[in-house]
């Protein structure tokens, strides 16, 4: 047993020390330990020796310098994943053994909620209470959901014509390349690695350059749970270098991407120009939230507010076009304004804070540009519209009324705390208008009328319709987009097929009478 190397179940990977690390300013007992790349079960420097800073969105200060992977590191990671797939124990061990590793990982996630939630909030800026009480429980839940699937994946026996015994078997697809975004770093990690590992794949995961910390720590825990070396490799780095190298690598068998529609087009092209690896894409959205005339306005205001402002408005599913029936419109906008004014914005580590800073200066500037564009195009700004304070990337909860579909703020994904309210008169009209974007990720419908709910949920061209609820992300519910919001589905049973090949085995039968 070599000192400092990964040595099997329950051992930590090398390159990690609990005695050093960068202390969290709020909770100094929590430190950043894992900053290198995780390749073949070891934390290692990048081939170039380069690092990049990751920032605290509360202040813009550097938290840590993280190893910067590029094409050479992706190649090292893919080689490790290839070897682990072709020669290692993971795809060949019993599905039950694989599921036990995932169950142990989920237990470790629960045990380390405080560290993981702190890293997540520190690196991303989301409220700590959200990280610890909402997201971490969802993360261990989805890992357990896929742990439960591992030994329930099987094929069929098919009664084909002719003297043949026909079976299908489901094999892991191979090396999966996974590229994740910064808005839900750990949740996206779990959505990606859970199903891929349950199916027996090996992985190279590239985290987002804005939020590299939590994936490295979670991957360390996964090795402590018994994951063999090389099965999950984590490369921190930038999109056009590390991300593009992964999408175009000839030895990656499948690509799963979550991010913007613009980048989705790039990775799809890279995948098709290299080895035609199948690609699943979970992309942007401009989701309508439709408040019907029978709505209880107080409840509708609260849910529409949550649908847009949750996670600083940085959700692909954000209900970013609030359609309100004319009968309740005026009451709705007064109450929506009051609710936005009441929203508590501040240091995400403070109890009771609903909204932290935006992720970085780039997103912060982009959101402020959209707010200016809303004003210039004639929408009415009823509250907010500016930054909050002079340090960090905080933005006032902002509400526009009199928004029209041809305005940029009604067409583009703003990814910030900017609510756009549009008035409508009848059902056909709102269906047409709600569907009039290039996106089709999700929609919210607020009504007590069964016919209205049924009609809208069938007419809207989106992957998820939430009726009198929003952002319900149970592990078993498939999620994905129509139109330019994506290809394929994540979560639920549907996601397993992304990581499986179906093989048909046809055997000639000597005695067809017994088929
Ligand atoms: P955003 O604009 O919200 O940051 P992106 O779609 O650019 O969203 O980023 C999502 C993920 O895609 C990140 O991990 C990022 O590094 C990666 N990415 C960005 N550009 C590319 C690219 N050209 N090729 C591959 N991955 C990329």
TrEMBL record:
InterPro entries: Ald_DH/histidinol_DH, Ald_DH_C, Ald_DH_CS_CYS, Ald_DH_CS_GLU, Ald_DH_N, Aldehyde_DH_dom. CDD domains: ALDH_F2BC (cd07142). GO terms for molecular function: aldehyde dehydrogenase (NAD+) activity. Keywords: NAD, Oxidoreductase. It catalyses: an aldehyde + NAD(+) + H2O = a carboxylate + NADH + 2 H(+). Its EC number is 1.2.1.3. The active site is at 282. The keyword Ribosomal protein does not apply. The keyword Ubl conjugation does not apply. It holds the Pfam family Aldedh. GO terms for cellular component: mitochondrion. GO terms for biological process: carboxylic acid metabolic process. Residues 43-505 form the Aldehyde dehydrogenase domain. Belongs to the aldehyde dehydrogenase family. Possesses activity on acetaldehyde and glycolaldehyde in vitro. This is aldehyde dehydrogenase (NAD(+)).
């Amino acid at each position: 047993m070599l000192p400092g190397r990964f040595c099997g179940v329950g051992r930590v990977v090398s390159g990690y020390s609990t005695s050093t690390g960068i202390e969290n300013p709020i909770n100094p007992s929590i430190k950043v330990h894992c900053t290198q790349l995780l390749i073949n079960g070891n934390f290692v420097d990048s081939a170039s020796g380069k690092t990049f800073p990751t920032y605290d969105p509360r202040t813009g200060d550097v938290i840590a310098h993280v190893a910067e992977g590029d094409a050479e590191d992706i190649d090292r990671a893919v080689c490790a994943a290839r070897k682990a797939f072709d020669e290692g124990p993971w795809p060949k061990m019993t599905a039950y053994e694989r599921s036990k590793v995932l169950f142990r990982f989920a237990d470790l996630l629960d045990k380390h909620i405080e560290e993981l939630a702190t890293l997540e909030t520190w690196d991303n800026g989301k409220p700590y209470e959200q990280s610890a009480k909402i997201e971490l429980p969802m993360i261990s839940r989805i890992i357990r959901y896929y742990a439960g699937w591992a030994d329930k994946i099987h094929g069929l026996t098919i009664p084909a014509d002719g003297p043949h015994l026909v079976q299908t078997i489901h094999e892991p697809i191979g090396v999966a390349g996974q590229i994740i975004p910064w808005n839900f770093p750990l949740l996206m990690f779990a959505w990606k690695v859970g199903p891929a590992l349950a199916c027996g794949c090996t992985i190279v995961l590239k985290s987002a350059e804005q939020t590299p910390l939590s994936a490295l720590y979670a991957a360390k825990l996964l090795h402590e749970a018994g994951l063999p070396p090389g099965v999950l490799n984590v490369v921190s780095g930038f999109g056009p270098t590390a991300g593009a190298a992964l999408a175009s690598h000839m030895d990656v068998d499948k690509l799963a991407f979550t991010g913007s529609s613009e980048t989705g087009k790039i990775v799809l092209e890279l995948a098709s120009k290299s080895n035609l690896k199948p690609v699943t894409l979970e992309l942007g959205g401009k989701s309508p939230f439709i408040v019907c005339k029978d709505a209880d306005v107080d409840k509708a205001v609260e849910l529409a507010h949550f649908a847009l402002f949750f996670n600083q408005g940085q959700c692909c599913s954000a209900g970013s076009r609030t359609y309100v029936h004319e009968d309740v419109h005026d009451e709705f906008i007064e109450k929506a304004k009051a609710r936005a004014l009441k929203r508590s914005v501040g240091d995400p580590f403070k109890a009771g804070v609903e909204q932290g800073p935006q992720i970085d200066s780039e997103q912060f500037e982009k959101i402020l540009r959209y707010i200016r564009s809303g004003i210039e195009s004639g929408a009415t700004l009823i509250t907010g519209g500016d930054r909050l304070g002079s340090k960090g990337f905080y933005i006032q909860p902002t509400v526009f009324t009199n928004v029209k579909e041809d305005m940029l703020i009604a067409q583009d994904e703003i990814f910030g705390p900017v609510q756009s309210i549009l008035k409508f008169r009848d059902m056909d009209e709102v269906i047409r208008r709600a569907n009039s974007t290039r996106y089709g990720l999700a929609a919210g419908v607020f009504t007590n009328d069964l016919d209205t709910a049924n009609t809208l949920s069938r007419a809207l061209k989106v992957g998820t319709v939430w009726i009198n609820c929003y952002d319900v992300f149970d592990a078993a519910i498939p999620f994905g987009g129509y139109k330019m919001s994506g290809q394929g589905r994540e979560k639920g049973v549907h996601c397993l097929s992304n990581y499986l090949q179906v093989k048909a085995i046809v055997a000639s039968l000597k005695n067809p009478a017994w088929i």
